[in-house]
Structure formats: structure tokens, C-alpha cells
């Protein structure tokens, strides 16, 4: 774990913490992704969550399905912006990549084990595990394909990265459609019959998969962060790397943003156009989903960059303050939210008829003052989000950014 300190600030108000050399739009994009994760996973009542904050049951997409891809794109942005330091010493970079990957996977496993540490049913895949694997794959690819520029300076090889995106999308599509699942056949994209789910059941065993990845009969058959589906998820990171190279080349220019906006539209249209052939599905991260979600996240980045990276207006700077707090310590914010979520599901609050979970107690409290049960449930999620921001606020005020 490392702690990066920003330049000291003379600011006096919370909303006036000045941006340092960090790309402001990146912190806000990460903050949006983390805020989205918290709002999706922390309702007062799971049955009373607004539809956009629920994942698609299988095929299709919702706003909630765009949250994780947005975080992955921000990982790619961070890789691109840190490239000069990363590529300076390949041996040191290899050690750093290995350490960070192992740290992310280990932290993901610990968070999955909460609150009871039932190792016999520990979920092995997970969000941080996927981030770690995608990070390792993309950074290694960047190092292996790097070209040499002026003064022997290593440069990101954009044609090679574009070729990798095409290979991953087409290769994964071919695997889904043409490789037969034993006893089932090829081309089945239902929860239990698709190739990624079959691989996960064989590699991790059912006892170590996501307990909510069930089929119509209620049997656990898939994991939404499975092994094979991590390959197309890597595309979202690679799109972030390419976007970062454009923004890094001309951080104040309009040209790169217009180019990225065009790319965002093309990616979304391509994903939608492929949907009738290869359905958009986050659970197994189909190629059409990778394209559409990359375009969606890229579009948000372009808007944020246009608003913030050329010198944010005071109102925009103040409005994005909570998101910058979250984005500056994104992994820590996510970890805190997962701890709160795990503790929130443990029944230990005395109540008539039995113990209440903190989640249930909070929903009852919100429901006592808010008549709409959906709004009351959403208010509980907002409360968790506010709590995480407040915990991270002292670190942000001091410009401290904790990294694995």
C-alpha cells in the first residue's frame, strides 16, 4: 500500500480544495462510478429499489449496469496518465504490476469473506479481482507492445492496442457462439448453458460462485465477474488507455474531446447494432456489451473533461466536490462501502419479534419520516454514500491518496 500526497493547499473552504496535477475529470469519473456502486448496493430494502439502480436480470442493460464499466474505463485512464513513470523501468514496472494485482485480488477476497469468513462458501471471483486481472493484462500488454520515441522514450502503441481490442471482441464472440459446452452444445447464452458459466463452475466450483447467480430453478450456475468474461471487460480498460493518450497529448484542446465524443457514439451504436446478433448482457460481458458500455462511459468522460479539465467554473468545482473525495481514494471508498454493506446485513439490533439488521433498522427509520417506500430505501443508500464521503474527507483535505 502506498500513500500519495498532493501539493499542500492554501484553501480554506471544503469546496475550494484546488485541483493538483491530477486530471480532475478522472477523479470525478471514478467518484461517479464509486457513488453508483454504493447507491446500487446499499438500498434500505432490496425490493424497493428504483429500476435504474437494479441490474438487468439477464439480457439488456440498466443504468446500474454501466457503473462497473465506467470504473474499468477510469482504470485505463489512470494507466495512460501514469505511463511515463510506469514505462521508465520495465523490471520495476513488472514488480509493481504483480504487487498491485495480488493486492487487489487479496483485498477482494477479504471483502467477499465478510462478515462471517465462511471459507467453505467464499466467493472467489469479484469486482476487485476483476479489476486486478484487467489491470495486469492491460499494463502488461502496454509494456510488451510499447514503441520507442524521441530520446528512446517508450510510447504507447495505439495501433497494437486497437488490434488487441478487435481480437478480444471477435475472439470472445467466437468462443460464445462456436465452442460447445459439454452436454449442452454451442451458442447457448442462457445463465447455465453459456461457456463462461460452465468454465466458472469447473474452475471455482458452485460453492465459490456468486450466490445470486442463479437460473430459473434457483440453482447457482454463474458468476457475474467470472474468469473468461474478464477478457472482454479488458476492452473497457483499453478504451480508457486510448482515451487517456488523447487527453494527455492535448489536455486543454477541443480536438481530442470531439474525437472521443465521435468514438463514444460509434461504440454505442456498434453495441446496439450487434445486440440482435449477440445480445447485450453484462452478466457474461458479451462483446456487444463491452462496446456499448465503453461508449457510454467514454461519453461521460468527454462531458466531464469539457466541464472540468480546462479550468472548472466555481459552481462545477463545488458541485463535484463529493465525487472528487470518492474518486481520489476510490478503492478505499469501495472497500468502506462493502464493509458497511456486510455489517448492515447482520441482525443484531434488538426489536420486537427478533433482531433487526442495521439495513432494516435504517429502512424503518427512513420509512417513519418518508411516505414513499422507494424514496425511503433510496435515502438509506444516500446515507451510506454520505458516511463514506465524510470518512474520506480528512484524507482529501490533506491531499492523501491511498493506493494498493
Automatic annotation (TrEMBL):
Residues of the Heparan-alpha-glucosaminide N-acetyltransferase catalytic domain: 22-141
* Record's keyword terms, sorted: Acyltransferase, Membrane, Transferase, Transmembrane, Transmembrane helix
Q: Which GO terms describe its molecular function?
A: acyltransferase activity
Q: Which Pfam families match?
A: HGSNAT_cat
Q: Which domain of life is it from?
A: Bacteria
Q: Where are the transmembrane segments?
A: 28-46, 66-85, 97-115, 127-148, 160-181, 227-247, 259-278, 284-308, 329-353, 373-395
Identify this protein by name: Putative acyltransferase
